[in-house]
Amino acid sequence: MNEAIKTVVMPKWGLSMSSGKITDWLAGVGDEVADGDELADIDTDKIAGTLESADAGILRAIVAKAGEDVPVGATIALIAPAEVAEDEIEQAAEQAREEIESGAVEEVTGPMTGAVEVGGRTISYATLGTGEETVVLVHGYGGDKNSWLFVQEPLSATRTVHALDLPGHGESTKDVGDGSLETLATTVRGFLDALGIERAHLVGHSLGGAVVTAVAATEPARVASLTLVAPAGFGEQVNAEYLRGFAAATSRRELKPHLTQLFADPQQVTRQLADDLMKFKRLDGVDQVLNTLLGTLLDGDRPGIDAVPELTRVRAPLAVVWGRADRVLPPDNAEQLAARTAVSYIDGAGHMVHMEQPNAVVRAVESVAGTPEG
């Protein structure tokens, strides 16, 4: 195939994804597209996401139609400059179509998983990319490394990107000790030590935002940049009812109303998402973990974390992203951060900005981390 023809493939957004459904094409044949332009909306078994172009040129062919389930790694469209002959495009599109229909699609390697011992606990993580610079993604309360599925892949094009499970979460040891911010921050510092990471771009969501802020305050030489996504520890507002309800829920029926508060679009709360979280909540030790962390997150009905003193000691470039429809940590909380940096308020996003509008998070990270060559 002509090297000028660039393929757009079904991405692997997460460890368990084997296929995706194209729900809508946002660009049409003949459209000029740039690197980062939105091409298609894709639905997975977890949540819907938007696929961005990794190349610049003209969208010359759409191989997979809207409404079609396509295996991960399959070519779904072709991008090429105008000078590439139409017969070459047709031949490449025909071949891609045959591969989809026959199932002869080259397997795409997803994140590589691993585990390290930190402070007597096993910390699980997933890694994508092999770039010289390193990004570490830290999730929030009740989350795990897979919550970054739409962010980790695009960042890994030019960097090594680790998403870790904090203690008590995901596949890490179900023990958080005293559950303090310092315990969690010590875990992240220990993770960097265990992997031999001398310097990293840290990205944290919600509770993870407070955690990486604490790390950046105490290890300034090791933090190249800091990106906070709806972080805890700033402002006076917190949805204590959500946090307690999430911790207390014992069935999918009880859990789902609380999960809908995480997203601007309640339809994002799929049965699979709720089932996965209930499986996590039923694991031995998780109930104690969640209730211990409530003691860190809440002081009565008020926030229990104040990360502002730590932020005053942070010297790394800072980016902040907040969903305008956040009902867990309202965007008014960002006022304390606005004095330090411009805050990106994202329409169409609730608390889970990195799942609903992941491209906004990627852009925020790039704004302070730069865009190294691959």
Question: What's a quick, concise take on this entry?
Answer:
The chain has helices spanning 86-102, 149-155, 181-194, 207-218, 240-248, 252-259, 271-281, 286-297, 308-311, 335-338, 353-356, 358-369, and strands spanning 6-9, 19-25, 32-33, 38-43, 48-52, 57-62, 69-71, 75-80, 112-118, 121-128, 134-138, 160-164, 200-205, 223-229, 298-299, 302-303, 318-323, 343-346. The chain is α/β, with parallel strands linked by helices and 374 residues long. The radius of gyration is 21 Å and the shape is globular.
Q: What coarse outline follows from CA principal-axis ratios?
A: globular
The oligomeric state of the chains shown is single chain
Q: Strand-residue fraction? A: 15-25%
Q: Spans with pLDDT under 50 lasting ≥5 residues?
A: none
**Number of structurally distinct domains:** 2
Number of DSSP strand runs: 18
Q: Largest sheet at a glance?
A: 8 strands, mixed
Helix content: 25-40%
CATH class of the largest domain: Alpha Beta
Radius of gyration: 21 Å
CATH topology of the largest domain: Rossmann fold
Order of helices and strands: EEEEEEEEHEEEHEHEHEHHHHEEHEHEHH
**Mean pLDDT across residues:** 92
CATH architecture term of the largest domain: 3-Layer(aba) Sandwich
Distance between the termini: 23 Å
Major sheet strand order: 9-10-12-11-13-14-17-18
Explain this structure.
The chain has an eight-stranded mixed beta sheet, with helices on both faces. Strands 1-8-6-3 form a four-stranded antiparallel beta sheet. Helix 6 packs across helix 7. It has two domains: 97 residues, RNA polymerase II/Efflux pump adaptor protein, barrel-sandwich hybrid domain (OB fold (Dihydrolipoamide Acetyltransferase, E2P), Beta Barrel); 258 residues, Rossmann fold (3-Layer(aba) Sandwich), CATH 3.40.50. The mean pLDDT is 92. The chain is built from twelve helices and 18 strands. The longest helix has 17 residues. The protein is 30% helix and 24% strand. By secondary structure, it is an alpha/beta fold.
